[in-house]
Write a structure and sequence with these properties.
It is a single chain. The protein is of the alpha+beta class. The protein is built from nine helices and ten strands. It has helices spanning 3-13, 67-70, 73-81, 102-111, 166-174, 201-216, 222-237, 245-257, 262-275; strands at residues 18-22, 26-27, 84-87, 94-99, 116-119, 124-129, 135-139, 142-145, 151-152, 162-163. The strands form two sheets. Strands 4, 5, 6, 7, 8 and 10 form a six-stranded mixed beta sheet that branches. A four-stranded antiparallel beta sheet has the order 2-1-3-9. Strand 1 (18-22) and strand 2 (26-27) form a beta hairpin. Helix 6 runs parallel beside helix 8 and helix 7 packs across helix 9 (262-275). 41% of the residues are buried. Mean pLDDT is 79; it is low at 42-50 and 176-187.
Length: 278
Amino acid sequence: MSDHLNVALGLAAKGVPVLPLRAGKVPFGNCPDCRNSACGGRPNMKTAGTCECPRTCHGWAAATTDRAVISSPGWERLWRTAAAVAYHPAGAGLTVVDLDDADAIGWARTALPPTRTVDTTRGEHWLYRGVMRSVNAVKPGVDIKSTMAYARYLGPGTGTMTALPDAVRALAERAPAVRPAQSAAGPAVPVGLGECRHRTPVFLERGIAMAEQRITEARTAIHATVYRTFLAVLSTHGRCGCLTETHVARLFTAAQDRGESLRHCTDAWTNARTALGM
């Protein structure tokens, strides 16, 4: 039995939902069609794709406390090659404040009540009892991981865990709705190279409104829906230069309102542009 599997079973016995991570802190595909991203990956992976697997194969939703699943032959193979064990904080009733560097740690020590801390590769995880929505980049070097997110398990940590403070919840409320990132492929908003098909602003406005509605009404496969919607918007409106940062912000906001993290939105947008050769 691998060390990762032993750790995972120990956490599951305490009610902490776990999943294996491969190199790069990325979830495995947990069914034969999706294993090793054979399906092309979900938007939160590092490859472009349109995986429509009905299972929860790529991320936090695969986390489980079911010993039979965790130690099943399929998962046991994953544990043997896993790079780390991850867990779903909200599934364990927790929120993780992920502090990426010394500046972020210094800020937390003055702004947040002490709680259990876990050393990470670059900084610290501060663990609080309580659940909230996950938000990235609430401050420089500070992410919040709780619902619809996973965090690496790096040991039990030190200190006494305390209740989730209002100061952390306030960070999420004040966080900007979107912050489209620049990518190696170019700016977040495409530069116009083709003939404008819009003719009137109504065509573009209708397209963005329909995209927002599609994301908002999604009840399952949120990652895949966001990616496919971004792909559709870019393929129709992305080459003439009429698509602005305001339009992109509306799409990101709709996705984040459905629980997507900023990082997942940015990856989905970048993957869609890559798939279209933008």
